[in-house]
Amino acid sequence: MSTAEAIDKESRAAARARKKADKIRDKHANDLPRSMQPSALVKTITIVVLVFALIYFLFPIYWAIIASTKTPSQMTGSNGLWFAVGLSDLPAAIAKNYGTLIGWTRGQFWRWVLNSLIYSGVSALVGTLVAVMAGYATAKFNFRGKNLAIGVIMGCMLMPAALLTIPQYSIFHAMHLTNTMLSIIIPCCVSPFGFFLGRVYAQTSVPNELLEAARIDGASEARIFFTIVLRILAPAMVTIFLFLFVATWNNFLLPLMMVSSDTLKPVTLGLYGMVSLATFTDRGALMMGALLGVLPVIVLFLGLQRYWQAGLAAGAVKG
Amino acid sequence: MTATTKTAKTGVARRAAKPKASDAAKRENRTGWAFMAPFGILFALVFILPIIWAIYSSFFRQVTTGGGAYGGGELVNKFVGLQNFQYVVTSGAFWAGVGRVVLYTLVQVPVMIIAALALAMLIDSYIVKHITAFRLSYFLPYAIPGVVASIIWVYLYNGQISPIVKGLAAIGIKVNFFGDNVVLGSMANITTWTFTGYNMLIFLAALQAIPHDLYEAARIDGANGFQIAMKIKLPNVRAAALLAMLLSIVGTIQLFNEPQVMSISDPSISKSYTPMMMALNTSQGTLTPGGDGPASAVAIVMALIAGVLAVVYTLVERKVNAE
Q1: pTM of the model
Q2: How many CB atoms lie within 10 A of CB A303?
Q3: Quick one: which of A272, B120, B135, B222 has the fewest CB in 10 Å?
Q4: pLDDT digits (tens, 9 = 90+) for B109-163
Q5: What is the number of structural domains in chain A?
Q6: What is the ipTM of this complex?
Q7: CB–CB of A171 and B212 under 8 A?
Q8: CATH second-level architecture of B87-322?
Q9: Gap between the Cα atoms of A121 and A300, Å rounded
Q10: In this structure, are strands B74-79 and B60-65 parallel, antiparallel, or unpaired?
Q11: Contact criterion met (CB below 8 Å) for A276 and B264
């Protein structure tokens, strides 16, 4: 154990030193001699392009926020770029649309959000653990059929997975699992991409000496994995968790096929059901539902954004 | 070493001698599989079994037997050989859908990848400071589920409520985002909006992995920022670009969310607009012939086309690379 901690500490110190060196280097890269500074023209063009892209990516979200405060008649009649009522009347307008939203969803809206949280949370948790275990197994052990297993899983990474939804439905139907929470959670647990990330991380950041030392100390394989390896792989696990969470949250086809009860719908399917009603007119209230329904993912995004880049880096560099 | 000396040894000695290594190997084999098993079982249930089932069921079709001219018979699965595949490859609707998806892939994927690469390069160029805000904003649409993004954009395409359509009309440009030749582009825009930032982050990660010594050396040799971008940065993100392209192609092959949502407000988007929509509607019996057999055949033929496209892309890329 002591060796484990020592190596852990050492690698952390090394990482810190590396980061510091990077920072210093970056600073130097920014302090270019005057002759190499970008010209004013280049700078202007760059800013214009970046700002234009910013408007493109943020405008629909901005518009949705504005629209979420409007009644159907204000939607068509008022200026689309600004609120239809004065700022002091805004809380009342929001409350009114919120009431409309709850009415249209027959009081199920927060149930849908909760369902989405359960589906995404459980799938991501289980999916991360099994992916990291499998990645560790293929990175650190020799077992019969290993190369075949890696080949098949990596092949499935390039498989159009949506096409599998239909046979998955048939199989889950035969197992009497359709229209249950498991029919969404089980397929969403399995991520070839998560396996790939887990394997890359285990290969690059779990030192063999550490495993040997722990074995000599008499630790069992399970204990080594759960107390040492998981701790080293924690950053990788956050990345895989995020990917699985968002993939499950955004999945639409799977719940569309698997689930029919109103109380089992995730928020994407619920909102889709709302728009596809022939009698539906309240677009403002729907926009409010859309915004409230993506809030949890956005919070995860902003809170854990540095892990995204770490995970994508592993994929980009290795791939 | 002869067989007699080996058998002459005691049991304890035998275990201690040659088989020791294989004992360790056996243990490693067991441990490896133990860690592999949870993922393996789930993988078999979610990937392998459905693939096998799809292939098997594609040879069957549900038919009614015993009923008269007015039906009323019993539904049974009948082995029909390759009839389902024959139906798919001779179906005009299927190939029209494939054509749309291929056209979509040929236009949307390069536009998105080039835009993502350009944005990543600009952000990595240090020309502008405070890039975090830009990076985050570009990535934000990825957090919006495809269905929700499609709903928002469908409203932004709607002439009655969209400030974009109204604004363009005010300056004399009349656009109909649901027009026959435009609607596919309108869909492509939704996909591009959602995934450009995600691909940009992949490229940004690859760019930041390039050792900075290379830039310094190039600058000492007198290279400017543009030359560094073209001669050093671009070749170094090639692997990342290849992977991003491949994953994007696979993604667009299964195009479903955008057309499904747009079909609510645009009845001209048919039930077989894309192969994925056709597969779903076939399996649910809203298209005839319906049922699992024909639906599986649609999915299998589509998967094969996707595989061919991916292989062709890889070969072309390799050839271009070699030249």
Answers
A1: 0.84
A2: 10
A3: B222
A4: 999 999 999 999 888 877 777 788 888 889 899 989 999 999 999 999 988 888 8
A5: 2
A6: 0.83
A7: no
A8: Orthogonal Bundle (1.10)
A9: 12
A10: antiparallel
A11: yes
